[in-house]
Amino acid sequence: MMDLYSNYEELSQNEVEGVDYAIRTYLSKSSLCSAIAIHGGGIEPGTSELVRELCARFWFVGYEFDAMKSRNNKDLHITATNFDEPKALDIVSKTFHTLSIHGYSEDERNTYIGGLDKSMIHIVKEELTKAGFHVDINPPEPINGNSLENICNKNRRRQGIQLEISTGQRRNFFANGDLSRLNRENPVQDFYDYVNALGNAMKRC
User: 36, 151 in Cβ contact below 8 A?
Assistant: First the structure.
């Protein structure tokens, strides 16, 4: 499906910040690692929550684009190769390692790991697998994160990681498998195990 908006400028001219969406940044003592959710809130539910928790528990610099519309949040989706919101670009450009967290539609519990940071892909795979999560490091082309234009690869090393987490796995992060906005305030142990695995992986960088 084609995006409604081709870049952030178009989106900002047609949607109201603070009403339809919010942009949040999280600062840190360290500038080594950034965790971002450019399709957060109601676009790919559960991705914002992962970023917030990573920034709260580990020394990540963080960014989230939180879609808050009562419906049609997917209208606010800008593909990662076109996502040019200035605060997001600034945060990523100043860090050495980037973890860009996305969601894709699939009932099976799975995480695809893509991006150009090949050494970190294997470390993230090891940590998630050790924590009991199913991982695949061969994502299909549309979501493999391999383009240099992908925001995950615009850090100081020009290589990052893109996680694509299935709907089934994201449901399993929250009570009763409910991805509604209010219920995403009720994470379960799988959520914390996943965050710890990602934090441990990035510590190893």
Answer: yes
